[in-house]
UniProtKB/TrEMBL annotation:
One of its GO terms (molecular function) is metal ion binding. It comes from Rhodococcus wratislaviensis. InterPro entries: Fe-S_cluster_ET. Keywords: 3Fe-4S, Electron transport, Iron, Iron-sulfur, Metal-binding, Transport. This is Ferredoxin. It comes from the Bacteria. Pfam families: Fer4_13. Its cofactor is [3Fe-4S] cluster.
């Protein structure tokens, strides 16, 4: 299983990750900065989370392999 974390001091609220994997990523209503609903990524979400890490323009997403 993989885990995901976000550094929202790097996030620029572009929303690409939320569009790709909305079950994991979401944005604050006030400032648009990202947060994760759930750190542990289910098998069906892995591809979207790994792609989100790749496409995030600010490098805010980190995928961890246990
Ligand atoms: S893709 Fe990156 S910059 Fe955009 S909302 Fe997600 S974490 Fe923030």
């Amino acid at each position: 299983m993989i885990r995901v974390s976000v550094d929202n001091t790097k996030c620029i609220a572009a929303g690409l990750c939320v569009g790709r994997e909305p079950g994991i990523f979401d944005q604050n209503d006030d400032d648009g900065l990202v947060f994760v609903h759930r750190e542990n990524v289910l098998p069906g979400e892995q591809e979207g989370v790994i792609e989100s890490e790749r496409i995030c323009p600010s490098g805010a997403i980190a995928v961890h392999t246990d």
